[in-house]
Amino acid sequence: FKRISTSSKSRDEIEQLGETFNEMIERLEENYHKQEQFVSNASHELKTPLTVIESYASLLQRRGASRPEIIEESVEAIHSEAVRMRELTQQLLLLARQSEKENLHISEVDLEAVAADAVENYRGSYHREIELSGKPAIVQTDPDKVKQLLYILLDNARKYSSDVIDVKIDTTETESVIAVIDRGIGIPEKDLERVFERFYRVDESRTRTSGGYGLGLSLAKDITEALGARITIESTYGQGTAVRLIFPVTSE
Ligand code: ADP
Question: I need a surface site. Which of 74, 97, 98, 252 has the fewest CB within 10 A?
């Protein structure tokens, strides 16, 4: 503050500087708090599978030799918890890389072609019926990131519905939209505005079994924003969910 010469500044200006400074500190504190919360959530999520792995390993050590039936059960539990831990660490890594605003590779892209590609890959892995409709939609974006986004949204649609999933491309003069629509369990209205928060899950019991950590949509939001696009979610509890990726159309 030494460099601010009070004589050349009016009281108002100094007050304003003070306010700006306070706002900056508040924002820093908020970010710091979020970061702390994130680390604490991540550690908590990693602790659960670790505890299971530890106790089955010690059970194996103590009883494995004398009771062979324990071996199969323990190895299975250790394996499935290890898989969960790998999934979580992968998602955490993706989040960390995303916040570094890793180099994007922007080019002129046809969203319909990118979606067709992603849908075909996804169908191959999960054998789910996915219907793609729409016309070519040219925007400036990173096609790999768009695919990554679609995998996140298709994964959710697959986990929380059992019917056909629709992927629709729509274009207006100013925007191109990819919508991923399912007819699944939907999201209660009170939870809807929080689903983009890190580690937010609508219902622990329904997601614990399907393996979600509440990170998918928050990652999707980060990626969409990095691309200069928007993401919206609409849902009716018990009927289904529509998530839209909205890309601005830049006219030459
Ligand atoms: P997760 O990895 O747990 O699915 P997300 O961040 O992708 O985490 O989603 C947050 C929560 O929102 C999920 O736990 C789930 O309860 C809910 N959710 C997301 N997508 C859908 C969907 N298509 N249908 C119903 N619920 C959904």
Answer: 252
